[in-house]
Amino acid sequence: MNGDTSEFGLPSIQKLLDAMDSYFEPPRRDTEGPLMAPLEGALNVKGRGTVLIGTLYRGTLRRGDHVEILGFDQKIPTVVTEIQTFGKSLPECKAGDHVGLLVRGVKTNVIERGMTLVSPSSVVISNRFKAQLYLLARGEGGRSKPISTKYIMPMFSRTWNIACRVDVDDGSMLMPGDHADVFLTLPKKMFMMVGQSFTIREHNRTVATGLISEVLPSITVTTSQVGKVALTI
């Protein structure tokens, strides 16, 4: 294509790009809603402090904004003192931007992948949820046997994963290929919202997918107790 101005050279590429621009709509970002940014991790910059790495899912964040870091039973208030993307400092960032955020007074070792950055007091974290679950059939790579109450396997959502207990709503068994309302119990409180998707994996393969339908009040339970404690369904 180097210098080719014939019908099938550079002009054809431009026609293709124009056609794509006219056909595909840019993704719609919620820049007005409450701030929410799942964190991928954190690093320490010598002489500066802790930098959070993540992508804004919703809202707009400005330099100097007060925020909270939620997840894994923690609620950490802080202030964003600098925003950078691709090495460039910005006064603000919006939904869809992948950024590094310098925060004040937060130690790097308390930040875990999967925490969520939110506006102060805008959401509540919990370890108990109701969800709609689909158990993959064997032909879809799922289980060959049903699950029942106290089924425990790793749950994945956005940038985090944690052990999860699944209890079928009516206490019956859930067969591969079936849908059901279930209760999810986690050993630690995490941020999840209605409509948020998740997957459950067993031996490194996805065996179930679902959507959160209700955020329930938290219960006190440790990792060792999550499979033993009696729960009201």
What does this structure look like?
This protein is mainly β and 233 residues long. The chain has two domains: 36-118, Elongation Factor Tu (Ef-tu), domain 3; 126-215, Translation factors (Elongation Factor Tu (Ef-tu), domain 3, Beta Barrel). It is built from one helix and 15 strands. The protein has one helix at 10-23, and strands at 36-45, 49-55, 60-62, 66-71, 74-85, 88-90, 92-94, 98-103, 116-118, 126-135, 151-157, 160-168, 179-190, 197-202, 205-215. The strands form three sheets. The chain has a six-stranded antiparallel barrel with strand order 1-2-8-5-4-9. It has a six-stranded antiparallel beta barrel with strand order 10-13-12-11-14-15. Strands 3-7 form a two-stranded antiparallel ribbon.
Q: What labels describe this entry?
A:
46% strand, Translation elongation factor, EFTu-like_2, 6% helix, nucleotide-binding, Transl_elong_EF1A/Init_IF2_C, 233 residues, translation elongation factor activity, 6-stranded antiparallel barrel, mainly beta, Elongation Factor Tu (Ef-tu), domain 3, 6-stranded antiparallel β-barrel
The ordered H/E elements are HEEEEEEEEEEEEEEE
CATH-derived architecture of the largest domain: Beta Barrel
- Poorly predicted regions: none
First-residue to last-residue Cα separation = 65 Å
Which fold name corresponds to the CATH topology of the largest domain?
Answer: Elongation Factor Tu (Ef-tu), domain 3
What's the CATH first level of the largest domain?
Mainly Beta
The general outline is flat
Q: At the fourth CATH level, what is the homologous superfamily of the largest domain?
A: Translation factors
